[in-house]
Specification:
The chain has a six-stranded mixed β-sheet with strand order 6-5-4-1-15-16. The chain has a six-stranded mixed β-sheet with strand order 7-8-9-12-14-13, with helices on one face. The protein is globular and about 80 Å long. The longest helix is centred in the middle third of the chain and has 20 residues, at 150-169. 31% of the residues lie in helices and 25% in strands. The chain folds into two domains: 2-276, 4-Layer Sandwich (Purple Acid Phosphatase, chain A, domain 2); 283-387, no CATH class. It has ten helices and 19 strands. With 388 residues, the chain is an alpha/beta fold. The structure holds manganese (II) ion.
Length: 388
Protein backbone atom coordinates (compact mmCIF):
# COMPACT_ATOMS: atom_id res chain seq x y z
CA UNK A 1 0.00 0.00 0.00
CA UNK A 2 1.08 3.54 -0.59
CA UNK A 3 0.80 6.26 2.03
CA UNK A 4 1.31 9.99 1.97
CA UNK A 5 2.76 11.25 5.26
CA UNK A 6 2.25 14.88 6.18
CA UNK A 7 1.88 16.79 9.47
CA UNK A 8 1.82 20.17 11.18
CA UNK A 9 -0.52 22.00 8.85
CA UNK A 10 -1.20 24.58 11.58
CA UNK A 11 -4.23 25.89 9.70
CA UNK A 12 -4.99 29.39 10.92
CA UNK A 13 -1.37 30.31 11.70
CA UNK A 14 -0.53 33.93 10.99
CA UNK A 15 2.83 35.64 10.57
CA UNK A 16 3.05 38.89 12.56
CA UNK A 17 -0.65 39.40 11.93
CA UNK A 18 -0.59 38.41 8.23
CA UNK A 19 -2.91 35.61 7.14
CA UNK A 20 -1.27 32.59 5.51
CA UNK A 21 -4.63 31.14 4.38
CA UNK A 22 -4.08 31.70 0.68
CA UNK A 23 -0.65 30.05 0.81
CA UNK A 24 -2.13 27.19 2.84
CA UNK A 25 -4.77 26.69 0.20
CA UNK A 26 -2.19 26.60 -2.59
CA UNK A 27 0.07 24.13 -0.85
CA UNK A 28 -2.87 21.87 0.04
CA UNK A 29 -3.90 21.83 -3.62
CA UNK A 30 -0.31 20.92 -4.48
CA UNK A 31 -0.40 18.07 -1.95
CA UNK A 32 -3.70 16.77 -3.31
CA UNK A 33 -2.17 16.73 -6.82
CA UNK A 34 0.79 14.72 -5.51
CA UNK A 35 -1.57 12.26 -3.78
CA UNK A 36 -3.57 11.77 -6.98
CA UNK A 37 -0.55 11.41 -9.27
CA UNK A 38 1.14 8.98 -6.91
CA UNK A 39 -2.07 6.96 -6.52
CA UNK A 40 -1.83 7.12 -2.77
CA UNK A 41 -4.15 4.86 -0.76
CA UNK A 42 -4.04 6.62 2.61
CA UNK A 43 -3.01 10.10 3.78
CA UNK A 44 -1.64 10.34 7.33
CA UNK A 45 -1.73 13.78 8.95
CA UNK A 46 0.42 13.30 12.05
CA UNK A 47 -1.04 16.05 14.24
CA UNK A 48 -1.31 19.83 14.57
CA UNK A 49 -3.97 20.05 11.90
CA UNK A 50 -5.01 23.42 13.29
CA UNK A 51 -2.86 26.08 14.88
CA UNK A 52 -5.25 26.61 17.76
CA UNK A 53 -7.84 24.77 19.80
CA UNK A 54 -10.59 27.04 18.45
CA UNK A 55 -9.85 27.56 14.75
CA UNK A 56 -11.83 30.11 12.75
CA UNK A 57 -14.28 29.14 10.01
CA UNK A 58 -11.73 29.90 7.29
CA UNK A 59 -9.35 27.34 8.77
CA UNK A 60 -12.09 24.74 9.06
CA UNK A 61 -13.03 25.35 5.46
CA UNK A 62 -9.41 24.74 4.36
CA UNK A 63 -9.46 21.39 6.15
CA UNK A 64 -12.88 20.31 4.88
CA UNK A 65 -12.01 21.36 1.34
CA UNK A 66 -8.81 19.27 1.41
CA UNK A 67 -10.63 16.26 2.93
CA UNK A 68 -13.34 16.56 0.31
CA UNK A 69 -10.69 16.32 -2.45
CA UNK A 70 -9.02 13.28 -0.87
CA UNK A 71 -12.36 11.51 -0.38
CA UNK A 72 -13.36 12.34 -3.95
CA UNK A 73 -10.15 10.74 -5.19
CA UNK A 74 -10.85 7.56 -3.21
CA UNK A 75 -8.10 8.27 -0.69
CA UNK A 76 -8.65 7.49 2.99
CA UNK A 77 -7.32 9.85 5.65
CA UNK A 78 -6.08 9.47 9.21
CA UNK A 79 -5.93 12.67 11.28
CA UNK A 80 -4.08 12.70 14.59
CA UNK A 81 -4.53 15.35 17.26
CA UNK A 82 -1.35 17.30 18.01
CA UNK A 83 -0.56 19.59 20.92
CA UNK A 84 -2.08 22.57 19.09
CA UNK A 85 -5.36 20.81 18.30
CA UNK A 86 -8.42 20.48 20.45
CA UNK A 87 -8.65 16.71 20.75
CA UNK A 88 -12.36 17.01 21.54
CA UNK A 89 -13.09 19.19 18.53
CA UNK A 90 -11.32 16.76 16.16
CA UNK A 91 -13.03 13.80 17.82
CA UNK A 92 -16.43 15.40 17.29
CA UNK A 93 -15.67 15.96 13.60
CA UNK A 94 -14.50 12.35 13.29
CA UNK A 95 -17.91 11.08 14.39
CA UNK A 96 -19.24 12.21 11.03
CA UNK A 97 -16.17 12.13 8.82
CA UNK A 98 -15.44 8.44 9.46
CA UNK A 99 -18.49 7.67 7.33
CA UNK A 100 -16.54 8.91 4.31
CA UNK A 101 -13.19 7.36 5.23
CA UNK A 102 -11.66 10.20 7.25
CA UNK A 103 -10.61 8.71 10.58
CA UNK A 104 -9.63 10.79 13.58
CA UNK A 105 -7.46 9.65 16.47
CA UNK A 106 -7.75 12.21 19.22
CA UNK A 107 -6.89 10.14 22.31
CA UNK A 108 -4.54 7.34 23.20
CA UNK A 109 -6.76 4.24 23.12
CA UNK A 110 -5.60 1.15 25.00
CA UNK A 111 -5.72 -1.77 24.73
CA UNK A 112 -4.69 -1.33 21.09
CA UNK A 113 -7.29 -3.71 19.65
CA UNK A 114 -10.05 -1.52 21.01
CA UNK A 115 -9.34 1.37 18.71
CA UNK A 116 -5.70 2.31 19.31
CA UNK A 117 -4.79 0.58 16.05
CA UNK A 118 -6.61 1.87 12.98
CA UNK A 119 -6.88 -0.48 10.00
CA UNK A 120 -7.08 0.27 6.29
CA UNK A 121 -7.80 -2.36 3.63
CA UNK A 122 -7.01 -2.31 -0.10
CA UNK A 123 -7.91 -5.52 -1.93
CA UNK A 124 -6.33 -8.30 0.10
CA UNK A 125 -3.78 -5.99 1.76
CA UNK A 126 -4.48 -4.73 5.26
CA UNK A 127 -2.51 -2.00 7.00
CA UNK A 128 -2.56 -1.52 10.76
CA UNK A 129 -1.59 1.93 11.95
CA UNK A 130 -0.80 2.36 15.65
CA UNK A 131 -2.20 5.87 16.05
CA UNK A 132 -0.80 7.80 18.99
CA UNK A 133 -1.76 11.47 19.24
CA UNK A 134 0.12 13.96 21.38
CA UNK A 135 0.43 12.81 24.98
CA UNK A 136 0.33 15.96 27.14
CA UNK A 137 2.74 15.89 30.07
CA UNK A 138 -0.21 16.72 32.31
CA UNK A 139 -1.81 13.41 31.33
CA UNK A 140 1.10 11.14 32.21
CA UNK A 141 2.59 13.05 35.14
CA UNK A 142 0.68 14.08 38.21
CA UNK A 143 0.89 17.58 39.64
CA UNK A 144 3.52 16.58 42.20
CA UNK A 145 5.82 15.06 39.61
CA UNK A 146 5.60 18.11 37.34
CA UNK A 147 6.61 20.30 40.28
CA UNK A 148 9.52 18.12 41.39
CA UNK A 149 13.00 17.75 40.01
CA UNK A 150 13.02 18.56 36.30
CA UNK A 151 15.31 15.73 35.23
CA UNK A 152 13.13 13.24 37.10
CA UNK A 153 9.88 14.52 35.60
CA UNK A 154 11.45 14.41 32.11
CA UNK A 155 12.51 10.83 32.74
CA UNK A 156 9.07 9.84 34.05
CA UNK A 157 7.47 11.34 30.93
CA UNK A 158 9.94 9.51 28.69
CA UNK A 159 9.38 6.16 30.35
CA UNK A 160 5.59 6.37 30.36
CA UNK A 161 5.23 7.61 26.80
CA UNK A 162 7.64 5.00 25.40
CA UNK A 163 5.63 2.40 27.36
CA UNK A 164 2.48 3.63 25.56
CA UNK A 165 4.26 3.26 22.21
CA UNK A 166 5.47 -0.25 23.10
CA UNK A 167 2.04 -1.35 24.31
CA UNK A 168 0.34 -0.01 21.21
CA UNK A 169 2.51 -1.89 18.70
CA UNK A 170 2.16 -5.08 20.78
CA UNK A 171 -1.37 -5.17 19.35
CA UNK A 172 -0.18 -5.69 15.73
CA UNK A 173 -1.34 -8.93 14.12
CA UNK A 174 0.79 -11.03 11.76
CA UNK A 175 1.06 -10.75 7.97
CA UNK A 176 -0.17 -7.19 7.81
CA UNK A 177 1.43 -3.86 7.07
CA UNK A 178 2.40 -2.20 10.35
CA UNK A 179 2.83 1.53 10.64
CA UNK A 180 2.90 3.93 13.54
CA UNK A 181 1.64 7.50 13.42
CA UNK A 182 2.63 9.69 16.36
CA UNK A 183 2.84 13.31 17.45
CA UNK A 184 5.85 13.49 19.72
CA UNK A 185 9.22 15.15 20.22
CA UNK A 186 12.16 12.83 19.58
CA UNK A 187 15.32 13.74 21.50
CA UNK A 188 17.90 15.41 19.27
CA UNK A 189 15.48 16.37 16.49
CA UNK A 190 16.61 19.34 14.40
CA UNK A 191 14.15 22.14 15.07
CA UNK A 192 15.91 24.78 13.00
CA UNK A 193 18.75 24.81 10.53
CA UNK A 194 19.51 28.31 9.33
CA UNK A 195 22.61 29.97 7.94
CA UNK A 196 24.53 26.71 8.13
CA UNK A 197 23.97 26.05 11.83
CA UNK A 198 21.59 23.47 13.27
CA UNK A 199 19.57 23.82 16.42
CA UNK A 200 18.53 20.56 18.05
CA UNK A 201 16.07 20.10 20.87
CA UNK A 202 17.17 17.76 23.62
CA UNK A 203 15.48 15.82 26.36
CA UNK A 204 17.05 18.10 29.00
CA UNK A 205 15.08 21.04 27.56
CA UNK A 206 11.69 19.49 26.77
CA UNK A 207 9.47 16.47 27.25
CA UNK A 208 10.73 14.01 24.68
CA UNK A 209 11.42 10.37 23.91
CA UNK A 210 14.78 8.98 22.86
CA UNK A 211 14.98 7.63 19.29
CA UNK A 212 16.42 4.31 20.52
CA UNK A 213 13.36 3.67 22.67
CA UNK A 214 10.91 3.92 19.77
CA UNK A 215 9.42 0.56 18.72
CA UNK A 216 11.26 -1.56 16.14
CA UNK A 217 8.29 -3.54 14.77
CA UNK A 218 6.55 -0.95 12.54
CA UNK A 219 7.66 -0.79 8.92
CA UNK A 220 7.54 2.98 9.29
CA UNK A 221 6.97 5.56 12.03
CA UNK A 222 5.23 8.66 10.63
CA UNK A 223 5.84 11.49 13.07
CA UNK A 224 4.56 15.01 13.54
CA UNK A 225 5.50 17.91 15.84
CA UNK A 226 8.88 19.10 14.50
CA UNK A 227 8.56 21.41 11.51
CA UNK A 228 11.87 20.62 9.84
CA UNK A 229 11.44 17.51 7.66
CA UNK A 230 13.96 14.87 8.71
CA UNK A 231 14.66 11.18 8.98
CA UNK A 232 15.52 10.04 12.53
CA UNK A 233 18.71 8.09 12.00
CA UNK A 234 19.05 6.55 15.47
CA UNK A 235 15.61 4.91 15.55
CA UNK A 236 15.42 1.10 15.18
CA UNK A 237 12.89 1.28 12.31
CA UNK A 238 12.47 3.82 9.47
CA UNK A 239 11.25 6.95 11.28
CA UNK A 240 10.71 10.46 9.96
CA UNK A 241 9.09 13.81 10.51
CA UNK A 242 7.15 15.08 7.51
CA UNK A 243 7.53 18.68 8.69
CA UNK A 244 5.16 21.58 8.09
CA UNK A 245 3.84 22.69 4.69
CA UNK A 246 4.98 26.29 4.79
CA UNK A 247 7.87 28.06 6.45
CA UNK A 248 5.75 29.08 9.43
CA UNK A 249 8.23 31.28 11.25
CA UNK A 250 11.64 32.81 10.66
CA UNK A 251 13.35 29.89 12.39
CA UNK A 252 12.08 27.76 9.47
CA UNK A 253 13.65 29.87 6.75
CA UNK A 254 15.80 27.88 4.31
CA UNK A 255 13.72 24.75 4.97
CA UNK A 256 12.56 22.82 1.92
CA UNK A 257 9.09 21.61 2.79
CA UNK A 258 7.96 18.19 1.61
CA UNK A 259 5.44 15.39 1.82
CA UNK A 260 6.64 11.80 2.15
CA UNK A 261 5.49 8.97 -0.04
CA UNK A 262 5.73 5.69 1.83
CA UNK A 263 5.51 2.28 0.14
CA UNK A 264 4.89 -0.48 2.64
CA UNK A 265 4.39 -4.20 2.44
CA UNK A 266 4.26 -6.70 5.29
CA UNK A 267 7.46 -7.75 6.99
CA UNK A 268 9.96 -5.39 5.39
CA UNK A 269 11.08 -1.81 6.01
CA UNK A 270 9.03 0.76 4.13
CA UNK A 271 10.51 2.74 1.26
CA UNK A 272 10.43 6.51 1.70
CA UNK A 273 10.52 9.28 -0.84
CA UNK A 274 10.36 13.01 -0.18
CA UNK A 275 8.35 15.06 -2.67
CA UNK A 276 9.20 18.77 -2.43
CA UNK A 277 6.44 21.33 -1.98
CA UNK A 278 6.89 24.55 -3.88
CA UNK A 279 3.99 26.79 -2.84
CA UNK A 280 3.99 29.45 -0.16
CA UNK A 281 6.14 32.52 0.30
CA UNK A 282 9.73 32.03 1.45
CA UNK A 283 10.74 33.56 4.78
CA UNK A 284 14.04 35.42 4.72
CA UNK A 285 16.20 37.57 6.97
CA UNK A 286 18.03 40.63 5.73
CA UNK A 287 20.78 42.28 7.77
CA UNK A 288 22.57 45.56 7.28
CA UNK A 289 21.70 49.21 6.83
CA UNK A 290 18.18 50.40 5.99
CA UNK A 291 19.34 51.07 2.41
CA UNK A 292 20.74 47.56 2.03
CA UNK A 293 17.55 46.04 3.40
CA UNK A 294 15.36 48.08 1.05
CA UNK A 295 17.54 47.07 -1.90
CA UNK A 296 17.09 43.41 -0.94
CA UNK A 297 13.33 43.96 -0.63
CA UNK A 298 13.14 45.35 -4.16
CA UNK A 299 14.72 42.11 -5.42
CA UNK A 300 12.37 39.80 -3.49
CA UNK A 301 8.78 41.07 -3.50
CA UNK A 302 7.43 37.53 -2.96
CA UNK A 303 9.25 36.84 0.33
CA UNK A 304 8.23 37.63 3.88
CA UNK A 305 11.20 39.24 5.56
CA UNK A 306 12.69 40.00 8.91
CA UNK A 307 15.02 42.97 8.79
CA UNK A 308 17.88 43.16 11.26
CA UNK A 309 19.19 46.72 11.11
CA UNK A 310 22.68 47.48 12.27
CA UNK A 311 22.50 51.00 13.74
CA UNK A 312 24.59 53.02 16.18
CA UNK A 313 21.65 54.16 18.32
CA UNK A 314 17.88 53.62 18.41
CA UNK A 315 16.03 55.58 15.75
CA UNK A 316 12.38 56.09 16.67
CA UNK A 317 10.08 55.50 13.69
CA UNK A 318 12.70 53.69 11.61
CA UNK A 319 10.98 50.32 11.86
CA UNK A 320 7.66 51.79 10.81
CA UNK A 321 9.21 53.67 7.85
CA UNK A 322 10.80 50.45 6.67
CA UNK A 323 7.58 48.45 6.91
CA UNK A 324 5.74 51.13 4.98
CA UNK A 325 8.39 51.28 2.24
CA UNK A 326 8.42 47.48 1.81
CA UNK A 327 5.27 45.73 3.04
CA UNK A 328 6.85 42.28 2.85
CA UNK A 329 9.08 43.29 5.78
CA UNK A 330 6.92 42.09 8.65
CA UNK A 331 9.47 42.15 11.44
CA UNK A 332 12.16 44.76 12.17
CA UNK A 333 14.88 44.42 14.77
CA UNK A 334 17.52 46.98 15.65
CA UNK A 335 21.01 45.88 16.60
CA UNK A 336 23.39 48.21 18.39
CA UNK A 337 25.87 48.25 21.20
CA UNK A 338 24.01 48.20 24.51
CA UNK A 339 27.00 48.98 26.73
CA UNK A 340 25.42 50.86 29.61
CA UNK A 341 26.67 51.48 33.13
CA UNK A 342 25.06 49.12 35.63
CA UNK A 343 22.70 50.85 37.98
CA UNK A 344 23.15 50.12 41.64
CA UNK A 345 19.87 48.90 43.07
CA UNK A 346 20.20 50.83 46.36
CA UNK A 347 20.27 54.07 44.34
CA UNK A 348 16.77 53.51 42.99
CA UNK A 349 15.02 54.77 46.11
CA UNK A 350 16.72 58.15 45.77
CA UNK A 351 15.83 58.67 42.07
CA UNK A 352 12.81 60.55 40.72
CA UNK A 353 10.42 58.76 38.33
CA UNK A 354 11.94 60.71 35.45
CA UNK A 355 15.46 59.67 36.38
CA UNK A 356 14.32 56.09 36.70
CA UNK A 357 12.77 56.28 33.23
CA UNK A 358 15.96 57.68 31.73
CA UNK A 359 17.95 54.81 33.24
CA UNK A 360 15.43 52.27 32.01
CA UNK A 361 15.48 53.78 28.51
CA UNK A 362 19.27 53.81 28.39
CA UNK A 363 19.34 50.19 29.45
CA UNK A 364 16.85 49.17 26.77
CA UNK A 365 18.00 51.37 23.91
CA UNK A 366 21.58 52.36 24.68
CA UNK A 367 20.91 56.10 24.44
CA UNK A 368 19.07 58.87 26.28
CA UNK A 369 15.39 59.37 25.41
CA UNK A 370 14.48 62.21 23.08
CA UNK A 371 13.34 65.55 24.61
CA UNK A 372 9.79 65.04 23.19
CA UNK A 373 9.53 61.70 24.91
CA UNK A 374 10.63 63.20 28.23
CA UNK A 375 8.13 66.06 28.01
CA UNK A 376 5.40 63.51 27.23
CA UNK A 377 6.46 61.55 30.29
CA UNK A 378 6.25 64.72 32.42
CA UNK A 379 2.74 65.43 31.13
CA UNK A 380 1.64 61.90 31.95
CA UNK A 381 3.20 62.10 35.39
CA UNK A 382 1.38 65.36 36.10
CA UNK A 383 -1.94 63.84 34.98
CA UNK A 384 -1.37 60.77 37.12
CA UNK A 385 -0.51 62.87 40.16
CA UNK A 386 -3.57 65.06 39.59
CA UNK A 387 -5.81 61.99 39.45
CA UNK A 388 -4.30 60.47 42.58
MN1 LIG B 1 3.08 19.98 17.59
Amino acid sequence: MRFLHTADWHLGRTLRGRSRAEEMHEVLVEMIDVARQERVDVVIVAGDVFDSASPGPGSERLLFEALREFVGAGIEVLLLAGNHDSARRLEAMGRLSELVGVRVQSEVILPPREGGIVTFARGDEVAEVAAIPWVPDGRVLDALEVGLDEAESRKAYHDRVTAVYARMVAGFTVRRIHLLAGHVLVDGAVVAAVDGSERRLHIEQAYAVSPQSLPSTPQYLALGHVHQPQVIADAPAPTAYAGSLLQLDFGERDQQKIVRIVDARPGRPAELRAVPLTKGRPLVEWRGSAEAVLAAAAEAPHAYARAVLEVTAPEPGLAQRLREAAPQIVDVRLEYDRAVGEAVESEFATLSPEELFVRYYRGEHGAAPAAELLSLLRELMEEAVALA
